[in-house]
């Protein structure tokens, strides 16, 4: 770092050589793309399982399921 600050330019601010920096950048980009693709697939699967935007009946359609779950929970707990 001192070489860079003194203007010699033999090393970079990160301390990596040009080859190491390119290799790191390539790994970073591939990892970011893989993470993004996994996130897209996960969001699609969750949307297929339980959409988070209500359908034509709105959230009223969820009330029956919630009532059943509450009745079951109160029966088991009390």
Protein topology:
Blueprint: H1 2-5, H2 18-49, H3 62-77
Low-confidence stretches: none
Helix share bin = 55-70%
The averaged pLDDT comes out at: 83
Calculate the terminal CA-CA distance, rounded to whole Å: 67 Å
Could you tell me the radius of gyration in angstroms?
A: 27 Å
Strand content: under 5%
Shape: elongated
Task: Supply the number of structural domains.
Answer: 1
Class of secondary structure makeup: mainly alpha
- Give the number of helices: 3
Largest sheet: none
What string, H for helix and E for strand, traces the elements in order?
HHH
- Topology, number of strands: 0
Q: Which key phrases capture this entry?
A:
single chain; 78 residues; mainly alpha; 3 helices
